[in-house]
Amino acid sequence: MAGLEIAPILLSVLANRTIPTKPDVRGKLDEVTRNTKINDEFGQLAAEFNRSLIDRIKSRAKDLDHLELQSLAFHWDIIAEQIDFTEIVFESEEEAVTWLIEEVNDVEDVNLDEEANEELQKLLSEEFRNVVDDFRDQVIQNEELSRQLQREFQVDVLDELSAIREEFDRLAYRRPYTLYSFPEDRESVISTLQPENAVEFVDRQEVPKNPDPGRYVVVGPSGAGKTRILAAFIDRLSEDSVDHILLPDERMLDPADVKGIAREEFAGDVLLIWEDIHRIDEGGESLVLESAIRELSHTLDSNGHNLYALLEARSGQLHNVPGNLPAAFDDEQSVWYDFEELRVENVDLDFIHDLAVRMADKYDVSGTNEVLEALIDQTASRSAPIYIDAVLGTAGDELTISDVEALPDNVEDLWQIQYEALQSDSRDEWYVLASMKLLYDLNLPYYSKLVRTIYLELLSGDRGRFRKSVEHLKQKRQWIDIRGEDLVSRQTQYYIHDVQLEAIQVCARDDASELSEVLLSEEESLPTYTRPIAHLNAGSAFSKWDRISLAIDQWKAALDLDPTFPEVHFNYGLLLAKHQGNPTKAETHLRKAIEYDPDFLEAYYSYALLLQQSLGRPKAAADYYRRALELDSKFVDALYNLGIVLHRDLNRPEKAEEYYRKTLKENSGHAPAHNNYGVLLKEDLNRPIEAKQHFERSLSIDPRHTLAHLNYANLLNDEFSKTHEAKQHFELALQLEPKNADIHYEYGIFVKEELNQEKEGQKHLSIARSINPKEYKNANIEIGKYPQNLSVETKKQSVSSRPVAINLGADIPKNTALEAIVKQDVTGDGKPDHEQVIHLMDGENKYRLDGFDPTGGDVWTEIKFRSKDGQNTASFDVPSYELYVVDNSPEENRS
Asked: Distance between CA atoms of 70 and 73, rounded to whole angstroms?
């Protein structure tokens, strides 16, 4: 076989997990390798493994411009065939990969350096992870293979393969951050924070001479010198204050990266430094920042260490930071409670003068003292550091009084003027900046090759002028900084200040289709390991702009590169559920997100929501809400929705009360929870006084909570005979939602029967009918009403296998509160042995059944009606609803 044999490695790892002693493992391996069926399956996978590995090594060699890796890829088949597997026994996945790398290096003429060995370790681990996934899928699909493996190893092989996959995934993990040792790497951290050739930091009162590590958020206007304050803080930290500094990669947006922090083995206290935190979770969807703080805190605390933090945010953008800053600094329930706000203050004239002199010297700008004083006067009320930097950095050789007098009022306008000038004077430089802004809009990093690709393919820039344009933007115009050894290598990134970004008047939303096409056709512009997340982020941006087909294209591309990427499955699943009305396919992707990341809290919650709201499987929904709560017992949304399922769908009022109370314990200001709890107390637990308290609390939190007004009005009328107050809350509900048919209907009944205002009541019933004629077609017609507690049973139907769904076969009047109780008699005594409560939904006739007996028996349904006006009046003829039972027979499965 050409290439590397994978069966000996993976079977050895599997055997070691299931066989107690090493000699027994060797014997079991000899026995299993004689199994033709198992070896044939691995043989088919080995060819794809080697092909993919060679492609990955070639691509990574190209990323790094690494000749040894290029040679390794070219000669891989020859090298792999020289590796001897005859006596190997591995005690772990890590030992297997380490041994394999050592064997590769022992082959004649192979001598990989440290960087190449690290890359090979990650690539091998990633490919072994993928091949274990493929093999596991084959075991699931092939019963004969599953039986043979079960017979050979006497364990649940699928569970063991999942564990092996997780271990290879751990070995393949690429840090989305840099972990520095402190104080040894102090200067490296400072140089990363400050741009090349930055002016020496001028003392600011915000930074103590000997700062103590803590948890700080540096807040100030754009351009006020916040990042320089971070650098000064690091410069002044005592040597024994922390052991590590953790600096995330620019715009770390993938929640999977956050989970990788838990894999890190920290040797002491950690200081987390994070710039521009207002840009991490823009849109409030990914919650990377809060997750990172919680994960780091938990990991360090469990090992007896502390997390300190030094974060930086723009004061005008605090609304983009999750957690309601700055109010959350005083909220004991918030992740921000232990943080202290470090606000950047206005600077004095001595500071501005010192800064101006240093920057003029840096940029070699000549000017009289009179000119500098004029500039200082112009700057005094602005964000001094960036304003002076922008003026002097772009002034040329000399600055005059007339130049200063012509300056705009703020730095944003200064960059705007320069940007507009580039459009006419230096078109290719303008194209470079426009390319960076388009990538920013898509949450993509400014890798030089990707910027160049957008510049060439989308904006039709001059190929021969790209490098010179970048050099001008850095050296002459002070627009960008370069992070990397070469100006245009695949690993090099550009950096631009957010104030400058705001001056660039292009928007990716306007060129979404073209950008999507470029990203799909030119993904090689990105380093290999960044491509799946680039497609993930671009897809998320397109989805936010309602460009659904483009989002799907990007996420499909991400899954082609990494079929096990849980965040892509998660986002794709949500899109299918929300925008394409395909809950079945959405379920597939959400289940894969959970399979590939068993700790993916948001995936458990979203899947539970899908089960509850779209798939009609409340029992399963409750189970997945509980799984989410196993990961985070204080997850308010899961607590609240579990309460709803137990209340409305599973008819378990006591348990529902438990979860409503837990919700309110974690968030006492949760207005919907107070409202729902009030409904439960009134309708199910017969505790109207407590219900009144919760409705009042809901309305004190949110005076515009329509449902709370409506429910409170009904309570006041039904339980306390306070018709005047009830009328006020009905009318407030109508003011808030004048086109809500339910409110008009309820109010119409109220004014007719409680206030004896026939004409007014008929008016609102007519409005309800005009808004929703299907549901309220008889709202203003005097007809016989269903009695308050009428129930009708369908005919019994005999089935021979497990009932999995029912179809009631007819629309049921929606001007009643409805539920159906499906019953199964297995023993034949005419009494139900199994029951399931189903809350019926408008326009839905077919409902899924859970947990019924596979032996079949008689199945029937009791349908309960309750009139909305609550009057126990005489009934008229109720239709005889037919019940069609969908059982689990082979014929049904085929259909």
From this structure: 5
